[in-house]
């Protein structure tokens, strides 16, 4: 049986205010949660999780932001409570289809939001860059521990010297259907080595392990193959939204060089927050830093609801 | 819109030697056909067209000194001569359909980066054009360097450089002064010695000379290389592998080269019996510090009665008398300069004006530096083939050129991936980091520790030309463009806005 998420403490997933189902372009049904106060005018934040994770991954971030934000979470297909797709349902196009479906279902008409994605969730933002539904909604984007291309050659999980060797080895790991087994001490050590920094606390490792071990083998392998062949640099280059980047300096899965490349490519790059000693799981390892960046983006790029209404009227008048 | 008064191309390649032709082949293979090759002369071949002096040959075996994508099973000799290498490049031009791209007699006069339009404005001898990307394959051995010798103007006889050989001038029965003892001079000396009346060789620094294992490649071998390509590949692989193994002696353990010095001394001793001449010809620096020369005929030629070796540089010319730095006076009918090329001060650098309004020469006044031998900071979408620190002391430059072409191809791919009107500008921090790494490794090399001055070093004594590693390592480091090392330039938003505004006004 899949392990359950943490039940207490900072990493326990909070209870959503509302749950709904969004329907993606190919008919896939996505599990969506809305957290935070219902008051109109509350700034909206949409969070997209990464490979082998789920909405539970964002628990510490949601616990903080939900105090004064409308926080939208969803499970990527094959993860958490969103069912797996058919054999052809795994692609960067599907990532974008799903995100735009969630934006349409969870946001009010005309409502804009700050979007944050971790790892594959960040790739989701790049994949969606040119979708009009995305451009209408995204006020700013935060990319955590992600990259746009060349993941298998750059990853340092398997410590081979040659990039060619690493490419092959990581392809095997990403596409592997080996079960992860129960959350044992050994499994946690392996997970910590591969995805977290040396300073990660046992509680953080436990939280991550419970989330990752809950991921089903088939969608994990299917998405892994998508990641192995990823090329979203073009998407990143057309992400015409103010974008901030967060990366851990000890990230083995998506080493920081991938974030530096994003920094070069992003058209409205705001800056990069390098988290010393942090691994790949930045929202769990350093939730405060991630929360702070999201709050800054909301403050600087998401005007309060009333102003936006005015701005919209202004724009309307102008066009007339 | 009459925005483009002149032609625009995706890529402008400068030069049609090994570098330029190789770039053209790889661009075509990449599906890029919207490019031109600008050539100042009337035919292809670059260095191998210009250097037609008697005895000119390559000192790297031909099976290695050729493109991997254009093998030639028919190489006539181990070390083929210039006519064969030039013919090979002509054939590559035809085989790969490059002729339509080449603009002859189109010397590039200036290159100017337009930061508004994100393209290069290219002025050539035959008109102007613009290009998104410029590939500068002008080569390090293309512009002859003639020392500024007082009184040279007053010399009544013939004067020319080895790379601009005057074939109409008959050397027979003439008194010839050969200035220099580099790779060209040691090929010229034995070739002209039998026909001239007197040959005086002005030698500032003697060179280390090793035997040259040259021979005709037999018909059987050629037949085999044609019928069984694997034999050709194996031959090339062997030639390459041997040279790869030698690299560490040059770059890390120069003392190991001492063994080779014994070989070179023995080589000299066999041909030169006169101890006084031997003393003149024996270098006082570590072998490898200057380029190691290969010849079996150089030393024997120097022992001929019509040859004099002046162990001193040319100081002055008085009429038809040449005065050496040590006071020796020699009469001559012709002076041939084998004095090399502008290597550390690429002439094209004066003609390129980058994003900051400065020329490449100005940016490089303290020494050339480019990211991975290709991109200089402030010169967006401008790539050099055989750029700074890509030269070799012991192997085939074609290997380095092909690595740089891999980089070029990935560069073009990245531009396409990023899409739109875009340019890549090397980050100064990345360029400096790359250069620092090279210079750190340079400290141990024979070029630095060998105790000589050479054409690898620039005016400040810094080695900005040689690659301090193996060709395999360079290949690995230039396989892909790392976007983290570049800044992505886009058309300024204000400009697009201004345009829209103008359009609106026009409508009103």
Brief overview:
The complex is a heterodimer of chains A (320) and B (508). Chain A has 320 residues and is α/β, with parallel strands linked by helices.
Write the SSE topology.
The complex is a heterodimer of chains A (320) and B (508).
Chain A: E1 18-23, E2 29-35, E3 44-48, H1 59-65, E4 70-74, H2 92-106, E5 113-118, H3 120-128, H4 132-137, E6 138-144, H5 151-154, H6 163-175, H7 185-195, H8 202-213, H9 217-228, H10 233-237, E7 243-248, H11 256-265, E8 269-275, H12 282-285, H13 287-301, H14 305-319
Parallel strand pairs in A: 3-4, 3-5, 5-6, 6-7, 7-8
Antiparallel strand pairs in A: 1-2, 2-4
Chain B: E1 7-14, H1 18-29, E2 35-38, H2 47-50, H3 82-95, E3 102-103, E4 108-114, E5 119-124, E6 127-136, E7 158-161, E8 175-179, H4 185-192, E9 198-202, E10 209-210, H5 219-227, H6 229-251, H7 258-271, H8 275-281, E11 293-294, H9 298-302, E12 307-310, E13 314-318, E14 321-324, E15 329-331, E16 334-337, E17 352-353, H10 360-363, E18 382-384, H11 397-418, E19 422-426, H12 428-442, H13 446-449, H14 471-477, E20 486-490, H15 493-507
Helix pairs in contact in B: 1-11, 5-6, 11-14
Task: Explain what this protein looks like in three dimensions.
The complex is a heterodimer of chains A (320) and B (508). Chain A has 320 residues and is an alpha/beta fold. In chain A, 43% of the residues lie in helices and 15% in strands. Chain A has a domain at 18-151 and 231-319: 3-Layer(aba) Sandwich (Rossmann fold), CATH 3.40.50.1820. An 8-stranded mixed beta sheet of chain A has the order 1-2-4-3-5-6-7-8, sandwiched between helices. In chain A, helix 1 (59-65) packs across helix 13, helix 2 (92-106) packs across helix 3 and helix 7 packs across helix 8 (202-213). The model of chain A is unreliable at 307-320 (pLDDT under 50). Chain B folds into 2 domains: 7-143 and 342-495, FAD/NAD(P)-binding domain (3-Layer(bba) Sandwich); 152-215 and 223-337, FAD/NAD(P)-binding domain. In chain B, the strands form 5 sheets. In chain B, strands 1, 2, 3, 4, 5, 6, 17 and 18 form an 8-stranded mixed beta sheet that branches. In chain B, strands 7-16-8-9-12 form a 5-stranded parallel beta sheet, covered by helices on one side. Chain B has a 3-stranded antiparallel beta sheet with strand order 13-14-15, with no helix packed on it. Chain B is built from 15 helices and 20 strands. With 508 residues, chain B is of the alpha/beta class. Mean pLDDT of chain B is 94; it is low at 497-508. Classes of the chains: A alpha/beta (320), B alpha/beta (508).
């Amino acid at each position: 049986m899949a392990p359950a998420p943490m039940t207490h403490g900072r990493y326990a997933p909070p209870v959503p205010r509302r749950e709904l189902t969004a329907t993606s372009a190919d008919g896939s049904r996505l599990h969506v949660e809305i957290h935070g106060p219902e008051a109109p005018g509350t700034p909206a934040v949409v969070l997209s999780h990464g490979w082998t994770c789920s909405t539970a991954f964002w628990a510490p971030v949601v616990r903080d932001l939900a105090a004064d934000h409308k926080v939208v979470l969803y499970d990527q297909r094959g993860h958490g409570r969103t069912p797996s797709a058919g054999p052809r349902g795994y692609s960067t196009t599907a990532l974008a289809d799903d995100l735009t479906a969630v934006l349409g279902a969870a946001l009010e008409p005309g409502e804009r939001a700050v979007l944050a994605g971790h790892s594959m969730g960040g790739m989701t933002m790049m994949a969606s860059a040119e979708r009009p539904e995305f451009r209408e909604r995204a006020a700013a984007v935060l990319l955590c521990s992600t990259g746009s291309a060349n993941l298998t050659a750059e990853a340092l999980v398997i410590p081979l010297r040659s990039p060619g060797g690493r490419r092959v080895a990581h392809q095997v790991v990403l596409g592997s259907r080996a079960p992860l087994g129960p959350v044992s001490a050994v499994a946690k050590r392996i997970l910590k080595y591969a995805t977290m920094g040396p300073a990660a606390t046992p509680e953080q490792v436990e939280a991550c392990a419970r989330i990752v071990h809950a991921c089903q083998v088939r969608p994990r392998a299917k998405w892994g193959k998508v990641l192995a062949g990823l090329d979203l640099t073009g998407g990143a280059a057309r992400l015409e939204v103010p974008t901030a980047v967060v990366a851990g300096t000890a990230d083995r899965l998506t080493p920081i060089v991938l974030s530096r490349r994003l920094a070069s490519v992003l058209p409205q790059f705001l800056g990069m927050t390098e988290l010393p000693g942090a691994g790949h799981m930045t929202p769990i390892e350093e939730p405060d830093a991630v929360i702070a960046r999201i709050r800054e983006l909301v403050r600087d790029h998401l005007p309060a609801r009333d102003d936006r209404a005015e701005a919209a009227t202004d724009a309307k008048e102008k066009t007339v | 819109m009459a925005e483009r008064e002149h032609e625009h191309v995706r890529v402008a390649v400068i030069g049609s030697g090994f570098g330029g032709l190789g770039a053209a082949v790889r661009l075509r293979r990449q599906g890029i056909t919207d490019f031109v090759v600008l050539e100042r002369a009337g035919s292809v071949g670059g260095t191998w067209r210009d250097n037609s002096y008697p005895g000119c040959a390559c000192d790297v075996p031909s099976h290695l000194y050729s493109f991997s994508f254009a093998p030639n099973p028919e190489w006539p000799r181990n070390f083929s001569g210039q006519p064969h290498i030039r013919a090979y490049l002509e054939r590559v031009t035809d085989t790969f359909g490059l002729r339509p791209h080449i603009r002859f007699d189109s010397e590039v006069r200036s290159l100017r980066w337009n930061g508004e339009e994100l393209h290069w404005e290219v002025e050539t001898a035959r008109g102007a054009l613009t290009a998104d990307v410029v590939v500068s394959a002008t080569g390090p051995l293309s512009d002859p360097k003639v020392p500024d010798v007082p009184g040279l103007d007053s010399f009544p006889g013939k004067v020319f450089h080895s790379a601009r050989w005057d074939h109409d001038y008959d050397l027979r029965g003439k008194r010839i002064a050969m200035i220099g003892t580099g790779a060209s001079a040691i090929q010229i000396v034995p070739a002209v010695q039998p026909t001239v009346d007197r040959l005086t060789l002005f030698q500032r620094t003697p060179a280390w000379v090793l035997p040259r294992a040259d021979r005709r490649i037999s018909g059987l071998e050629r037949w085999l290389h044609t019928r069984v390509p694997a034999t050709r590949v194996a031959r090339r692989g062997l030639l390459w592998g041997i040279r790869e193994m030698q690299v560490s002696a040059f770059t890390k353990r120069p003392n190991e080269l001492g063994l080779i010095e014994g070989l070179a001394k023995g080589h000299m001793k066999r041909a030169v019996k006169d101890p006084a001449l031997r003393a003149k010809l024996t270098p006082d620096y570590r072998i490898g510090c200057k380029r190691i020369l290969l010849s079996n005929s150089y030393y024997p030629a120097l022992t001929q009665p019509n040859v004099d070796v002046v162990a001193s540089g040319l100081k002055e010319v008085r009429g038809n008398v040449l005065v050496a730095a040590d006071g020796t006076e020699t009469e001559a009918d012709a002076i041939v300069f084998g004095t090399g090329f502008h290597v550390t001060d690429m002439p094209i650098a004066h003609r390129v004006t980058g994003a900051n309004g400065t020329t490449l020469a100005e940016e490089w006044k303290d020494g050339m530096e480019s990211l991975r031998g290709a991109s200089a900071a402030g010169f967006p979408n401008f790539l050099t083939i055989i750029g700074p620190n890509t030269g070799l002391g012991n192997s085939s430059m074609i290997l380095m050129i092909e690595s740089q072409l891999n980089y070029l191809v990935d560069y073009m791919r990245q531009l396409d991936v990023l899409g739109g009107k875009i340019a890549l500008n090397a980050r100064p921090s990345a360029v400096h980091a790359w250069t620092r790494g090279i210079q750190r490794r340079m400290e141990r090399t024979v070029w630095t520790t060998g105790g000589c001055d050479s054409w690898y070093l620039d005016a400040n004594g810094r080695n900005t030309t040689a690659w301090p590693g193996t060709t395999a390592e360079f290949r690995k480091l230039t396989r892909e463009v790392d976007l983290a090392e570049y800044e992505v330039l886009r058309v300024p938003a204000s400009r697009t806005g201004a345009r829209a505004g103008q359009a609106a006004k026009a409508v009103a």
